[in-house]
Amino acid sequence: MPVLEVQNVTKQYKNGRGVENISFSIEQGEIFGLLGPNGAGKTTLMKCIVALCRPDQGDILINGYHVREQFEQAMQSVGTLISGVEAFDFLTAYENLHLVSRLYPSLEKGRIDEVLQWVGMEAHKHEKVKSFSTGMRQRLYLAAALLSSPTLVILDEPTNGLDIEGKLDFQELISRLAKEEGVTFILSTHLIDEVERLCNRIAILSKGKIIGEVAKSQLEEGQTFESFYMSKIRKGKEVNQDAELTK
Ligand SMILES: Nc1ncnc2c1ncn2[C@@H]1O[C@H](COP(=O)(O)OP(=O)(O)OP(=O)(O)O)[C@@H](O)[C@H]1O
């Protein structure tokens, strides 16, 4: 059974933007990259997956549970880092994670320290979040996403604001969790080197639609995720230009 199934999902905002008829599924242990230009619909789709946004049509299943009808069961094994979801500034890193941990009564003692160590924030755990840099906040959000030992982790531009070392540490952590613990990841990012390094499959969103999907194993000789991405984006532009000309 796939960890995540997105079936014909459409979400249209009042201004007509959003995502249209999106379908894909992800198997356990995959690192799935969601790529696309600014405004393509990546965050919207991720928000739909974790029910921060209600699709107009379509179904989303996590480990076989319907996100809409079986929300609690579906979300039990999900960790998320989605733009726009903030920590409490007036609490420390540890206190913020402690607050999140109350959602998961069966967490082991010491788990907060463990995830803080993973993301390199142990030394700052008793500092208030209001004094944190963007990168430190991002590390804290990642720690929160991993706190409950989720089997599916949804990361929206997770290395935004991280320094070089932070990025590399993060990439190592994701690879390790996927390989050793079988954790499944969906990752949206604009950093193509991150995609090449981490992802085993990608989907390309453009103007709310999927215009390409490929696994690393399906790439032709000499082809990279970057060249696949650029070929799809260029093709999309040509199609749009042709449509304009025939209007
Ligand atoms: N709450 C909203 N109300 C109206 N339109 C919205 C809303 N949120 C997003 N949009 C629009 O929907 C489209 C998709 O936005 P979304 O944030 O999902 O894109 P994205 O691929 O995550 O972009 P980026 O790479 O810039 O983060 C954009 O055109 C955006 O302007």
From TrEMBL:
Protein's name in the database: ABC transporter
Residue span, ABC transporter domain: 4-232
InterPro entries: AAA+_ATPase, ABC_transporter-like_ATP-bd, ABC_transporter_ATP-binding, P-loop_NTPase
Family the UniProt entry places it in: Belongs to the ABC transporter superfamily.
Gene Ontology molecular-function annotations: ATP binding; ATP hydrolysis activity
Residue runs in coiled coils: none
One family name in Pfam for this protein: ABC_tran
Protein keywords: ATP-binding, Nucleotide-binding, Transport
